[in-house]
Amino acid sequence: MTQDKFESLETHLAHLDKTVDELSDVVNKQQTQINRLIRIVEILSESEQQDAEISPDKVPPHW
After folding, report:
1. What whole-number distance in Å separates Cα of residue 50 and Cα of residue 38?
2. CA 61 to CA 32: how far, in whole Å?
3. 3-33, pLDDT tens digit by residue?
């Protein structure tokens, strides 16, 4: 393998390595956001269930 080809492969590998690191950061941030959203949905669901338990026969105000 020629020196130029070897250097080209090293450069390409360095770019790929950087891209993988950047994508890993993106995935990590997205997972953090997903976890936060899941927790919000859980809180809202619990609140909804508590409201339903307090007044199951009460008609919603938009009816």
Report:
1. 18
2. 36
3. 999 999 999 999 999 999 999 999 999 999 9
Cα→Cα distances 48→23, 36, 40, 58, 60, Å: 37, 18, 12, 13, 12
Return d(Cα 61, Cα 11) in angstroms, integer: 64
Phi and psi angles of residue 60, each rounded to the nearest 5 degrees, phi first: -60, 150
Tell me how far apart the alpha carbons of residues 41 and 51 are, in angstroms, rounded to a whole number: 15
Residue 61 tokens, joined: 């105000």
C-alpha torsion sign, points 29, 35, 38, 40 = negative
Global pTM exceeds 0.85: no
Burial of 49 (0-12, 13-18, 19+ CB in 10 A): exposed
Residue written as token pair 């020629």: 2
